[in-house]
Structure formats: structure tokens, C-alpha cells
């Protein structure tokens, strides 16, 4: 999968994430301290990718680019543990830089998944 497609996915998914964060901040402003909200932001980020990719194999960005996540060798829907690992690896600082060195980033390589066109 080309870098451009992944960049578009990231841009769209980051926008969706920010919308979730701002909506959550607005709704929970009277209930959650700002310091605690950082933890909530990480949880929202993690859940966005995990739930989307577990259920459909796609995030909003992947829907836009008509791509989906599949198992590396099976080309089928990945197992939940693979998606869990894929999502956890996204939280590694500077993980996105791995795309400068590999066609599939760390979150693909170590979770044994890949991105394909639908």
C-alpha cells in the first residue's frame, strides 16, 4: 500500500479522533478534570481503531480510500488478538516513522496484518 493512501487514512482518522475528543470534552467538561482527560483521549484513540478494525476491518479513513485490514497470509479478516496488537503498537511513540523504512509499518509487521484495497 502506498504512502499516500496511508497518509490520507491518517489525516481522516486523526480528524475523526479530534471530533470524538472535542465532543467528549464538551459532554464531560463538568465531570472529568482536564488532567484526567488525557487518559480518556488515549482510551478514545485506542478504542476507535480497535473497535473499527475488529468489526469492519476499516476505519473512516480506510472507508474513504476503500482499503481494509486483512491477515498477512490469509487475506481474510484478522483475529481479534492481531487487531489488539496492531492497535497497541500504534501507541508506540514515533511509530509512524517506520513507514519511511518499510512498506508496512511496525503495527502491520508485528501484528501480521496488512492493508489492501477492498
What order do the helices and strands come in, and which of them pair?
Blueprint: H1 3-28, H2 34-55, H3 60-65, E1 67-71, H4 80-90, H5 106-109, E2 113-117
Antiparallel strand pairs: 1-2
Describe this structure in words.
The chain is mainly α and 118 residues long. The chain is built from five helices and two strands, in the order αααβααβ. Strands 1-2 form a two-stranded antiparallel ribbon. The termini are close together.
Number of strands: 2
Low-confidence stretches: none
**Number of helical runs?**
5
Largest sheet: 2 strands, antiparallel
Strand order of the largest sheet: 1-2
Rounded radius of gyration (Å): 15 Å
- How would the global form be characterised? elongated
Mean pLDDT: 90
End-to-end gap: 12 Å
Strand content: 5-15%
Q: Helical content, roughly?
A: 55-70%
Q: Supply the helix-strand structural class.
A: mainly alpha
Please provide the ordered H/E string of secondary-structure elements. HHHEHHE
Give a quick precis of the structure.
The chain has 5 helices and 2 strands, in the order H-H-H-E-H-H-E. By secondary structure, it is mainly α. It is elongated.
Please give a handful of descriptors for the protein shown.
118 residues; two-stranded antiparallel sheet; 5 helices; elongated; mainly alpha
